[in-house]
Amino acid sequence: MVKLTKEDIIFEIEENLFEAASLWASGRGGKYFEGEDIIWVYTATRTMNQILGALFKAADIESKIYNTLKRFKEWGVPVEWICGPTTKPFDLGDYLVKYGLRFTEQWTGMALDMGQPLKKQEVIEGLTIRQVDTKDDEMLKKWIDIIVKSFDGWGEDDRHGIYSILTDAAKTGKDKNFIKFAALYNDVPCSTGALYLGSESAGIYFAATLPEYRGKGIAGELMLKMLDFALKKGRKLAVLHATKYGEGMYKKLGFKQYCKLDVYATEGYPT
Questions:
Q1: Percentage of residues in the chain having pLDDT higher than 70
Q2: What domains can be seen in the chain, in order of their start residue?
Q3: How far is the C-alpha of 4 from the C-alpha of 6, rounded, in Å?
Q4: Could you give the CA distance from residue 23 to residue 43 in angstroms, rounded to a whole number?
Q5: Which band of pLDDT confidence, cut at 50, 70 and 90, is reported for residue 268?
Q6: Distance CA 241, CA 229 (A)
Q7: What pTM was estimated for this model as a whole?
Q8: What pLDDT was estimated at residue 270?
Q9: C-alpha closest to that of 230 among 256, 210, 204, 260
């Protein structure tokens, strides 16, 4: 593997996010648009609607923001706008606030060079890790339930939205690069994660652990299992977008911080 520069890695941190976004539009009625200066995803549900990759010229900023947000207002759904390290202009967030969006959180763009040996997996008595098949409806619902219970602000709209997106994606085969995992402790599903196998990197998404199962090393072992899977699929770089709650665990696994991504949202988007 050719040694990647910091700029290469930052590019992949955003690029995997852009590639994965197309999956969210897989549900019935969903739409995905990738233009020269903007990417947006409409899921036809009230969750996972996103705007990304803005590269606006100074003269077009306000009209671009207005027209992009107008779509989602007409569809009657909330949307989050993600501003990453390559977003232009650099102060786009100030304009978004002016148009009624609120700053919700900051993600840390992190990456792990899997060309180096991974941390050795531990044996936790009672722990099993398995892939989640979308066709296994009961397990899929349990997987989603863990995410909804673990993510602040998520509720029934998100539960139904994620279920609809993933089941529709499975019917068309659009989820072939999206691999879901669950950790079971004494046969009880308690922790989740997913890999998006992008063209050059493996992105980690939907990492969640029920509160009563945290601090036992379960999430870390689940991540190691996922990383080993990605490595066997030929991906030598793992990327993720960590919240403040997960950043410490990822550092212990060897992930390094490369950039920040600011997240803004319209009213009604879970935070």
A1: 99
A2: 6-110 (no CATH), 127-256 (3.40.630.30)
A3: 7
A4: 9
A5: confident
A6: 19
A7: 0.94
A8: 72
A9: 204
